[in-house]
Structures are given as C-alpha cells and as structure tokens.
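hiii so um. not sure if this is the right channel but i have a protein structure encoded as tokens and i wanna go backwards to a sequence. like what aa goes where. can anyone help
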C-alpha cells in the first residue's frame, strides 16, 4: 500500500493555474507517473519535474520508486513515492487518497506502466502456439493497467474540476508489427479508451479535464533490448527493418517523448483532448517505398 517517508520528499508547492506568462509551465501541479521507474516512464517523470511539477512516482516496488525519487530530487526537482500495483484497484485508490491527503489534489496522470512479455511473442513460432494466458497477461498489464489508474485518479480530478491524463499507445496499435498480437490488441484498446474517456469526462465534468495519448516510435529499453540488439551490440534483423522504415533513420531516445507530454499536460494544450500523437521519427507515415 502507499505511504511512508516518500510523501515528505521535496516539500509542497502551492498550485497555480497559470504561472508568470508561460502557458507551458507545470509549476505547482501534482503529477502521478505509473511505471515511473521504467525507461519511458522514468524519462517522463524527470521531464515533468523539470517543468515544475511535483511528481509522484508510482511503482509496486518501493525501492525502485525511491531510487527514481532520489534521482529527481538530486536534479533539483520535487518528487515523492507512491506504492501500488496498477492491476490492484484497491491499492491504486489507496495511493490516490494518500496523495490527495498529503498534497491536496492531483493534476496530472501519466500511464506509463505496460509493455510486452516474452511468452506472448510469436516471432519464432506460429501465433497458434502462443499460450492464451500469456495473451491475457499482456492485455491485463496494458489495458487494465491503464484503465484502473485512469478511473481512480480521474475521480479525484472530477471532484476538483480539472486534470490531465496522458496514456501511452504504440506504433503497434495502428501498424501491423509481426510477433506481437496481444500487445497490438492491447494498445489499440488504449487508443479507443483514450478517446472514449476524453469525451465522457469533458461532457460530464467540464472542459478542464482532458485525456490524450502519445504513440512512441521505437525506443530501445530493457524490455525490447534482446529483440533489437545482438550480444555484441549490433542491430538484429528486426532492428534494421525498423530503422529502414523510419524516415529519420534511427531509434528514438526516451527524452524525446518528454516535450510532447509536457505540452499535453500544460495550459498550452487547453483545447486538446481525445488525440493520440505519434512521436516516432516518421515511422507511422512511411510506406517503406
């Protein structure tokens, strides 16, 4: 369950809707990043802190969250620890309640928890041979792991009349990527969930509650390292194919996702809701010809 010394890190900053001229500022806002210890989630947590937000790093492992919080604080940001499993609604709600008690509100939620699992891949076997429980595990991790935090923290946002949710989709939601059926179906689900929730929250709770998503291109991470890189560090055949179909001719870097998320969470995007923005070096628009 959430709690403990992590909630005292960094001190409180009064919430300010608009700060000294810049509509991009996040100063005074309270953000939650699920999966905030991962490659993408960690970059986004650091980026939100750099923009002025107090960032709650939510992870099921306290030691990992504390390590990330220490990193953010050493860089001059403000951060705190929340402990919860994103697949456990009771834990997520308890984490939300504790954050609201300690900080008074929650302004931003970034759902970065998710990913694929080795057992659900069909790169080297027919898709018929993929265990259905592995398919289900990928669906749960990505869809339930986004829906549960979204509905939990959106409830607090609805009560205060404002807030911003950013989900993480993938190129796999709209382009056929071999070997990742379960992951593709899950990310497609996240995209329609993003649109559905954006419309519902705006209609029921007002224009100041927004829901959007980004669709990252290919970033090398701990999860896909062995799929994209050989033991000697050279590209695998799959990695070479990805780069060949990316007009910019390279993989992305996690920090290159930060600016888009900062913008979506800021007043500069106040009329933007229900969109999925590719951040992909052009992969999604290129046919390969």
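sure thing!! here u go:
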């Amino acid at each position: 369950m959430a709690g403990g010394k992590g909630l005292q890190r960094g001190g409180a900053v009064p919430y300010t809707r608009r700060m000294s001229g810049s509509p991009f500022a996040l100063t005074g806002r309270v953000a939650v990043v699920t999966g905030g210890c991962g490659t993408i989630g960690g970059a986004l947590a650091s980026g939100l802190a750099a923009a002025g937000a107090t960032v709650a790093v939510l992870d099921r492992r306290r030691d990992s969250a504390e390590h990330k919080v220490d990193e953010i604080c050493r860089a001059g940001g403000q951060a705190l620890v929340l402990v919860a499993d994103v697949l456990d609604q009771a834990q997520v709600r308890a984490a939300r309640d504790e954050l609201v008690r300690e900080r008074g509100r929650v302004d931003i939620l970034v759902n970065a928890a998710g990913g694929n699992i080795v057992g659900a891949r069909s790169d080297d076997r027919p898709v018929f041979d993929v265990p259905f429980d592995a398919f289900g595990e990928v669906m749960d991790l990505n869809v339930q792991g986004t829906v549960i935090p979204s509905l939990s923290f959106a409830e607090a946002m609805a009560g205060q009349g404002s807030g911003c949710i950013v989900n993480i989709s993938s190129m796999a939601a709209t382009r056929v990527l071999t070997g990742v059926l379960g992951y593709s179906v899950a990310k497609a689900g996240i995209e329609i969930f993003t649109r559905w929730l954006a419309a519902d929250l705006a209609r029921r709770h007002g224009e100041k509650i927004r829901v959007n998503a980004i669709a990252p291109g290919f970033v090398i991470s701990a999860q896909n390292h062995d799929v994209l890189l050989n033991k000697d560090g050279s590209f695998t055949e799959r990695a070479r194919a990805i780069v060949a179909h990316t007009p910019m001719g390279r993989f992305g870097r996690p920090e290159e996702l930060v600016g888009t998320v900062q913008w979506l969470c800021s007043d500069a995007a106040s009329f933007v809701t229900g969109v999925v923005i590719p951040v992909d070096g052009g992969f999604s628009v290129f046919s390969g010809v």
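oh and The chain has one domain: 25-217+253-285.
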